[in-house]
Write a structure and sequence with these properties.
189 residues; alpha+beta; five-stranded antiparallel β-sheet; two-stranded parallel sheet; 3 helices; 7 strands; 38% helix; rod-shaped
């Protein structure tokens, strides 16, 4: 025990007498780089998680709607409200999340037509609110029936937004056929 204590005191004395400080200087140069790398890894992880949650949200909205036989605006508002919980822990309010749903059918001239009263959305500010319905790939549409289209835009704000300006938006579109009927009908009121 005494020998070990004497050895530690000897090393501590050498450390105090060392004047070059090379290790401290190297650490001072490397430490900021290590912090930047760490914060970058955290930020990339958060952005990937937010992107994945937007994909999950889009598919969930379309899937829930496809299970209805007829739907109304109040039904859709409830679905929009419930599905925003999927984005947790990321904030999902009208300033950064826009959910739009469409029911697309084919008319007699093989043109795509919106069968509901236009697009129905949660009124969010992300993306272009005047954008038309997405064009459904022709091989997805049948002579009878429809396709439910869910379109989600999420404005992701970095946890490091104090240092970096600009927001990233994640956009997803999901197509699904109604499950029980040829076309989910619109219920007024």
């Amino acid at each position: 025990m005494i020998k070990m204590r004497h050895g530690l005191q000897k090393r501590a004395g050498r450390f105090r007498r060392e004047k070059s400080g090379a290790i401290a200087i190297e650490f001072a140069f490397i430490f900021p780089l290590l912090i930047v790398v760490y914060l970058g890894v955290v930020e990339i992880g958060n952005a990937l998680a937010a992107s994945r949650k937007v994909t999950l949200l889009t598919g969930t909205v379309a899937d829930i709607i496809s299970q209805y036989d007829e739907i109304s605006k109040s039904d859709l508002d409830k679905i929009f409200l419930a599905t925003t919980e999927i984005l947790r822990p990321f904030s999902a309010d009208s300033s950064n999340l826009r959910i739009e749903v469409f029911s697309i059918t084919v008319d007699d001239e093989d043109a795509q037509v919106e069968s509901w009263p236009g697009k129905v959305s949660n009124g969010g500010n992300c993306g272009n609110s005047n954008a038309p319905a997405p064009v459904v790939p022709a091989n997805l549409l049948a002579d009878k029936g429809s396709i439910i289209v869910a379109k989600v835009c999420y404005g992701y704000q970095s946890v490091l937004h104090h240092f970096f300006s600009g927001a990233t938006s994640f956009n997803e579109i999901f197509y699904i056929r109604p499950r029980h009927v040829d076309a989910v009908s619109w219920q007024s009121g």
